[in-house]
Design goal:
Length: 377
């Protein structure tokens, strides 16, 4: 009974929360929220006295505050003042659109204010200001921080006025200089393993880096891509090399186990099971080989040759197989032991397969390292 009562209270609370008249938001001075909540209530219940009163009062308060914010912003010296004007005009226009779509609301606010032309003018002024700031920063475009600053300004221009002057060209040029260009070099073939195909490892890394955005202002290239795009400069190089990769000797171990199991049904007499003891000799063979090594990972400043980050990444892969034969009564074996007797000896994997399995965890280590390093750029 108590559980049902609590569920009822919870449902009632959710229902009331969804039917808010906006009065609490009005009392807290959150006038835009109060207006929108009152509108939602009036859409479902146009006769709600609380919602009607809230809409009447909250709308006027909201309008007055936005217009006052606009007036103060226009007379300020803040270089971003027109963006404040834009935000306040947008808020007023959003309220206009919301009221216009609510017939009951138009009875309370028959002529909501709208400032579409004023908004367009303010967006133009905001775009002018940001464009000028972007141009100023681009005078030092070879300094990456300045290029990033310019690109951020131009993104705002694009948002304010999509077709503004040559904004697409400015966005492209600023992004080029803002982008940290990193070349991922091929990995040399591991020593001592002449026939090993290793290119797949760095190819897989490049594929991931090309498909995943770690940072808007970092881009990864293969040497061929950097050459094809005629890059004016490269900032950093990622260089990887297998310090070592070796295969251990094949290890094989043979054990023998005597199995005795009691209380096993061995016969039937007079319609009843006869229990007895069964025995078996299980001969288990296990064969394994280990492949292991270390990947030397370095990030190098292309201009100075300084190593920015270096890490030795170890990895190991152990291949193993076990199989068994038995003599005696099969009923003495457990399911697992019986399953082992159904296996057959297999040849050890070739070095290529061992190498691919050895590099699998290294891929995750490299991607994690690259992601953490370049997120701060």
């Amino acid at each position: 009974m108590k559980r049902s009562y609590l569920i009822y209270l919870f449902i009632a609370f959710i229902t009331l929360a969804g039917c808010s008249t906006g009065k609490k938001a009005l009392q807290k001075g959150d006038y835009d929220k109060a207006v929108l909540q009152a509108i939602n209530r009036l859409k479902s219940n146009g006769d709600s006295k609380k919602a009607r009163a809230t809409l009447r009062d909250a709308y006027q308060y909201a309008l007055d505050i936005h217009l006052d914010n606009i007036k103060r912003a226009k007379t300020s010296s803040d270089p971003y003042r027109w963006e404040s004007v834009v935000n306040n005009y947008q808020s007023i226009n959003n309220l206009y659109e919301a009221i216009r779509r609510c017939p009951a609301c138009l009875e309370i606010v028959p002529s909501p204010s709208r400032y579409f032309e004023d908004l367009g003018y303010a967006q133009g002024q905001a775009a002018d200001a940001r464009y000028a700031m972007g141009q100023q920063a681009m005078r030092q475009k070879t300094i990456r921080e300045k290029a990033i600053e310019a690109h951020e300004h131009f993104k705002v221009v694009k948002r304010m006025a999509n077709q503004y002057r040559d904004i697409d060209q400015q966005l492209g040029e600023s992004l080029y200089y803002a982008t940290l260009k990193v070349v991922v070099e091929p990995i040399p073939r591991p020593m001592r393993v002449v026939d090993l195909r290793h290119e797949f490892f760095v190819n897989k890394i490049n594929e991931h880096l090309h498909q995943t955005s770690i940072n808007e202002y970092v881009r990864f290239f293969t040497p061929e891509e950097a050459s094809n795009e005629n890059l004016e400069f490269v900032d950093q190089v990622i260089r990887m090399e297998f310090d070592q990769f070796s295969l251990g000797n094949v290890f094989q171990n043979n054990t023998e186990r005597q199995i005795i199991r009691d209380s096993v049904v061995v016969a039937e007499k007079d319609g009843e099971d006869v229990l007895g003891t069964v025995r078996a000799t299980l001969k288990i063979s296990e064969k394994s080989i280990t492949g292991g090594g270390i990947l030397d990972f370095r990030i190098i400043d292309q201009n100075t040759g300084r190593i920015l980050s270096q890490e030795k990444m170890p990895s190991e892969y152990v291949w193993t197989i076990s199989w068994a034969t038995f003599q005696g009564d099969e009923r003495a074996l457990s399911d697992e032991e019986y399953e082992m007797t159904q296996r057959r000896e297999l040849a050890v994997p070739n070095p290529q397969l061992m190498f691919e399995e050895f590099t699998a965890p290294l891929f995750n280590q490299v991607i994690a390292k690259v992601s953490s390093f370049y997120q701060r750029y």
